[in-house]
C-alpha cells in the first residue's frame, strides 16, 4: 500500500478511518520534532491531541479485549490461532508504546519550557486576555504586605490560554504559586517589601525572561518557495523578506524568520 | 520535574523517527491486516511483498517471520555512485549530493521544471505536505528510471545502520556496504565542519545557510555546534546589525529603500 | 544582560578603564583611599555595571561623571594579534568572558572594525574547536594549549560539539556509555 494512496483517501470529515489515523500520526510526529527543536512553546494543537487521546483510549480497549480472548479458556480450542494472536498483541503494544512515547515527550518538553520561563508565559496569557495594558499592580511599591505571590498575574479573565492548553495553564499557575510561596518562606520574606517581586525590572534588567526567537532552527522548505522574514524592529516598521528557500531545501535560519511559514505548514522543523 | 534532554531530538530519538520509514518485506507467514495508531498495516500473504514501517519490519525479521528487501540506494553500486558525486563532482565539493525529490518536486533529470507542491488537508483544515519519514524513500524498487542517479534519503545513516545490524543477511554485500556508509559519513562530516566559514550569513536577520541533502543524524550531530556558532556570531554582530537596520529605517523614511538589496544573503556550503 | 544567567552577571563584573571628569567627594574608596575625594582626571578600572551607570550622563549629553575606555582585552594590540592569527591568542587570559565582554563593549562604543575582527576570530577558532571536539582521544599536542585558552562561550561550544559527537558514536555502537 502506498502512503500516497492512504493519504489521498482521507476524508476530511471522517476522523474514524484507519487512513485518518495515519495522517494524525504524521501530524503528531511532525509536531513532536518541532516542539523538541524550537525554544519557544508552540501553540497547543487542541483538536489533534483530542483525536489522539481518543484513539489511544480505543486502542487500549482493543488490546485488552484481545489479551482477554487469548487467556480465555473457552477459546483454547482454536489454539492454533494463538501464535499469530500473540504476535498481533506484541505489534499492537509496540505501536501503542511508540505513540505514548511521542505524547509523553511532547508534554514533558512543554512543561520544561513553561517552568523555565514561567512568568513570561503567565504574563503573556494574562495580557492577551485584558484589552487594556495590564494595569501593573497599583501600589506595589508601598504595600508593605507584598508577597512574591502578588507577582502572579490575575488569570480569571483568561478565556483563551493559547499557546498553552487549559490544563497547562492550571499547572503553571499552581506551579508558580508554590514556587513563589517557597521563595517567600525561605528568603524573599526577609527582604524589604519592594524587593519581593518576581517580575521586577529595576535597573533596566527584567526578571521576566522569555525564549529568544532569534535562536536558529533547522528547517525543510515544503512548498515552491518560502522567504525568510525579518520582523519589524530597530525602527523598521514593516516586515522585510531576506533569503528565499526553495522546495526540498534544508536551511539553518532564525526561528522568528520562519515562524509564520511553520504555522502555515510550509516548512517543517528538523 | 526537569526535562533532561537538550533542544532538538537526540540520536536515539532520530533513530526512533527513522523507524517510521516504510520498507519492503517478503513475509514468511500470513498475518491479517492491522489497524495501528501509526496507520493501517496491510495483510501479509506470502509470497507477496508488503510495505511496513521499519520498526515492524525489524520486529518480524528478528523473529524470522520476514525478510527485508533492501532499498535501492543501499546497494554497494548505488553507494559508490553517490560517494563519487560527493567526492569527485566540483559542484558538490562543499555541498551534499542532492536528496530524493519531495512529491511534486521535479527529479534531478528534469531540473528545469517548476516544482508544484500539492497540499493535503488535515481534519482541522490546515495544509499538510508529507516529508520523510513518511515518503517511500526506502522501499525496494524493481525498476529504477534510467538516467536517475541514486540519492541518499534523509534517514540514510539510521536505516542503513539498522539494516546492517538486524538484517545483514538480506543485504547484497554487507561488508562492502558498511565500508561505503562509513566513508560517506566521513566525507560528509568533513563538509559540515568546513562549513563554519559561511555560518555568519545565518547570523543576521533574514539570512540563512543551506544544508540541503543533509541527513537527519547529521543534523542531530551538528545541531548544537552550528546553533552555538550562529548564535555566538549573532551576538558579536548585534550592534552592527542594529546600526544597519536603523540605516534601513532611515532610507525607508526617505523613500530610498530598495527591497531587493537585502536578497544576496544566501550561500551554500 | 539576562537576569538569571550567571555568565551574564560575571560579564558585568569584568573591569573597564574609567576616567573621572569631576571631583567626587568621599569616593576615594574606589581607589583604596576611604574618606578621601576622588579627583578629576583620575583613571581607575571599574566593573562594567558600575562604569556604565556612572557614564550615563555622557550618553544623555549632560555633564558626565566618568568617561569609559575600551578595556585592554580589546585593545588595538589584541585586535592586531587576532588579525595575524586568531588561533594563537589566549583569550581566557585576556578575559574569561571575552566575547560576552565584547558584546557589551560594542553596545557602548561604535567599533565596526572590531566587529569584523571578532567575527573572523570566532569563526576561525570555532572550526578549530570542532576539530578537537570530534577527536575521540581528546586534545593532544598543541591542542591542549589552544583549548586552555578558550573563553567561556568557546568552552560551551566545545562541550556541546564534543557531547553530540560522543552521543552519535554511542548510538552507532562505536563508543560505550560512560
UniProtKB/TrEMBL annotation, chain A:
Low complexity: compositionally biased ranges: 126-146
Primary residence: nucleus
Subcellular compartments: Nucleus
Source organism superkingdom: Eukaryota
SUPFAM superfamilies assigned to the protein according to its UniProt record, in alphabetical order: GINS helical bundle-like (SSF158573)
Annotated GINS subunit domain residues: 62-185
Stretches for region Disordered: 126-160
PANTHER family per record: DNA REPLICATION COMPLEX GINS PROTEIN SLD5, SLD5 PROTEIN
Family: Belongs to the GINS4/SLD5 family.
Protein name: DNA replication complex GINS protein SLD5
Upper taxonomic lineage: Eukaryota, Fungi, Dikarya, Ascomycota, Pezizomycotina
UniProtKB/TrEMBL annotation, chain B:
Superkingdom classification of source: Eukaryota
Compositional bias of kind Acidic residues: 260-269
Location of this chain's protein in the cell: Nucleus
GO biological process, one term: DNA replication
A Pfam family it matches: Sld5
Start and end residues of each GINS subunit domain: 146-236
Region (Disordered) location: 92-113, 241-269
Keyword terms, alphabetized: Chromosome partition, DNA replication, Nucleus
Ranges of residues in domain DNA replication complex GINS protein PSF2 N-terminal: 10-69
Gene Ontology cellular component terms for the protein in this record: GINS complex
InterPro entries, sorted: GINS_A, GINS_bundle-like_dom_sf, GINS_Psf2, PSF2_N
Database matches in CDD domains: GINS_A_psf2, GINS_B_Psf2
Residue ranges of coiled coil: none
SUPFAM superfamilies listed in its UniProt record: GINS helical bundle-like, PriA/YqbF domain
Quaternary context: Component of the GINS complex which is a heterotetramer of SLD5, PSF1, PSF2 and PSF3.
Role according to the record: The GINS complex plays an essential role in the initiation of DNA replication. Has a role in chromosome segregation.
Family designation: Belongs to the GINS2/PSF2 family.
Entry protein name: DNA replication complex GINS protein PSF2
Organism, scientific name: Aspergillus caelatus
TrEMBL record, chain C:
Domain DNA replication complex GINS protein PSF3 N-terminal intervals: 4-55
Keyword list, A-Z: DNA replication, Nucleus
GO BP terms: double-strand break repair via break-induced replication; mitotic DNA replication initiation
Domain of life: Eukaryota
Protein's cellular compartments: Nucleus
SUPFAM superfamilies (UniProt xref): GINS helical bundle-like, PriA/YqbF domain
Gene Ontology CC: chromatin; CMG complex; GINS complex; nuclear replication fork
InterPro entries, per the entry: GINS_A, GINS_bundle-like_dom_sf, GINS_Psf3, GINS_Psf3_sf, PSF3_N
Positions of the GINS subunit domain: 74-172
Keyword Nucleus recorded: yes
Protein role: The GINS complex plays an essential role in the initiation of DNA replication.
Assembly, per entry: Component of the GINS complex.
Family (UniProt): Belongs to the GINS3/PSF3 family.
Name recorded for this polypeptide: DNA replication complex GINS protein PSF3
Organism per entry: Aspergillus flavus (strain ATCC 200026 / FGSC A1120 / IAM 13836 / NRRL 3357 / JCM 12722 / SRRC 167)
Amino acid at each position: 500500500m502506498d502512503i500516497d494512496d492512504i493519504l489521498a483517501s482521507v476524508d476530511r470529515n471522517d476522523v474514524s478511518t484507519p487512513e485518518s489515523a495515519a495522517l494524525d500520526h504524521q501530524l503528531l510526529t511532525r509536531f513532536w520534532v518541532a516542539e523538541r527543536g524550537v525554544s519557544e512553546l508552540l501553540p497547543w494543537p487542541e483538536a489533534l491531541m483530542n483525536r489522539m487521546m481518543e484513539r489511544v483510549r480505543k486502542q487500549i480497549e482493543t488490546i485488552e479485549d484481545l489479551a482477554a480472548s487469548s487467556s480465555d479458556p473457552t477459546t483454547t480450542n482454536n489454539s492454533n490461532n494463538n501464535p499469530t494472536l500473540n504476535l498481533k498483541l506484541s505489534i499492537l503494544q509496540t505501536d501503542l508504546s511508540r505513540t505514548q512515547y511521542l505524547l509523553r515527550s511532547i508534554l514533558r518538553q512543554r512543561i520544561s519550557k513553561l517552568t523555565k520561563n514561567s512568568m513570561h508565559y503567565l504574563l503573556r496569557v494574562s495580557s492577551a486576555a485584558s484589552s487594556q495594558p495590564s494595569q501593573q499592580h497599583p501600589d506595589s511599591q508601598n504595600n508593605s504586605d507584598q508577597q512574591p505571590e502578588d507577582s502572579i498575574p490575575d488569570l480569571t479573565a483568561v478565556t483563551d490560554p493559547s499557546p498553552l492548553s487549559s490544563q497547562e495553564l492550571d499547572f503553571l499557575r499552581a506551579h508558580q504559586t508554590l514556587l513563589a510561596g517557597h521563595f517567600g518562606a525561605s528568603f524573599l520574606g526577609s527582604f524589604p517589601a519592594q524587593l519581593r517581586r518576581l517580575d521586577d525590572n529595576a535597573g533596566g534588567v527584567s526578571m521576566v525572561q522569555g525564549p529568544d526567537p532569534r535562536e536558529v532552527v533547522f528547517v525543510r522548505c515544503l512548498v515552491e518557495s518560502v522567504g525568510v522574514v525579518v520582523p519589524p524592529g530597530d525602527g523598521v516598521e514593516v516586515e522585510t523578506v531576506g533569503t528565499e528557500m526553495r522546495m526540498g531545501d534544508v536551511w539553518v535560519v532564525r526561528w522568528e524568520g520562519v515562524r509564520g511559514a511553520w504555522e502555515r505548514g510550509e516548512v517543517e522543523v528538523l | 520535574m526537569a526535562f533532561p534532554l537538550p533542544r532538538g531530538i537526540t540520536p536515539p530519538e532520530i533513530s526512533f523517527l527513522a523507524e517510521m520509514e516504510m520498507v519492503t518485506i517478503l513475509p514468511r507467514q500470513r498475518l491479517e491486516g492491522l489497524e495501528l495508531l501509526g496507520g493501517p498495516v496491510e495483510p501479509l500473504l506470502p509470497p507477496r511483498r508488503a510495505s511496513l514501517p521499519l520498526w515492524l519490519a525489524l520486529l518480524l525479521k528478528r523473529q524470522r517471520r520476514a525478510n527485508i528487501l533492501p532499498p535501492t540506494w543501499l546497494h554497494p553500486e548505488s553507494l559508490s555512485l553517490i560517494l563519487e558525486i560527493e567526492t569527485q563532482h566540483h559542484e558538490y565539493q562543499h555541498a551534499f549530493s542532492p536528496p530524493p525529490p519531495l512529491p511534486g518536486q521535479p527529479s534531478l533529470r528534469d531540473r528545469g521544471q517548476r516544482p508544484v507542491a500539492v497540499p493535503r488537508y488535515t481534519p482541522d483544515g490546515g495544509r499538510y505536505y508529507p516529508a520523510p519519514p513518511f515518503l517511500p524513500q526506502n522501499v525496494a524498487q524493481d525498476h529504477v528510471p534510467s538516467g536517475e542517479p541514486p540519492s541518499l534519503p534523509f534517514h540514510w545513516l539510521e536505516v542503513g545502520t539498522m539494516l546492517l545490524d538486524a538484517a545483514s543477511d538480506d543485504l547484497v554485500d554487507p561488508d562492502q556496504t558498511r565500508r561505503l556508509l562509513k566513508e560517506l559519513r566521513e566525507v560528509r562530516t568533513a563538509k559540515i565542519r568546513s562549513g563554519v566559514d559561511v555560518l555568519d550569513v545565518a547570523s543576521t536577520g533574514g539570512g540563512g545557510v543551506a544544508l540541503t541533502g543533509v541527513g537527519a543524524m547529521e543534523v542531530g550531530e551538528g545541531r548544537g555546534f552550528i546553533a552555538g556558532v550562529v548564535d555566538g556570531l549573532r551576538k558579536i554582530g548585534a550592534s552592527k546589525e542594529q546600526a544597519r537596520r536603523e540605516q534601513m529605517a532611515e532610507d525607508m523614511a526617505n523613500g530610498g529603500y530598495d527591497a531587493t538589496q537585502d536578497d544576496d544573503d544566501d550561500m551554500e556550503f | 544582560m539576562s537576569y538569571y544567567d550567571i555568565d551574564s552577571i560575571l560579564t558585568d563584573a569584568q573591569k573597564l578603564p574609567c576616567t573621572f571628569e569631576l571631583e567626587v567627594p568621599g569616593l576615594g574608596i574606589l581607589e583604596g583611599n576611604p574618606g578621601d575625594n576622588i579627583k578629576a582626571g583620575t583613571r581607575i578600572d571599574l566593573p562594567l555595571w558600575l562604569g556604565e551607570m556612572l557614564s550615563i550622563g555622557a550618553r544623555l549629553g549632560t555633564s558626565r561623571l566618568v568617561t569609559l575606555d575600551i578595556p585592554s582585552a580589546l585593545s588595538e594590540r589584541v585586535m592586531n594579534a587576532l588579525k595575524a592569527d586568531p588561533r594563537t591568542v589566549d583569550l581566557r587570559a585576556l578575559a574569561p568572558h571575552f566575547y560576552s565582554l565584547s558584546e557589551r563593549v560594542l553596545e557602548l562604543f561604535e567599533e565596526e572594525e572590531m566587529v569584523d575582527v571578532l567575527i573572523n576570530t570566532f569563526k576561525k577558532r570555532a572550526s578549530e574547536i570542532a576539530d578537537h571536539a570530534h577527536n575521540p582521544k581528546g586534545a593532544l599536542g598543541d591542542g591542549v594549549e589552544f583549548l586552555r585558552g578558550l573563553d567561556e562561550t568557546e568552552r560551551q561550544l566545545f562541550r556541546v560539539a564534543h557531547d553530540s559527537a560522543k552521543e552519535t558514536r554511542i548510538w552507532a555502537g562505536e563508543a560505550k556509555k560512560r
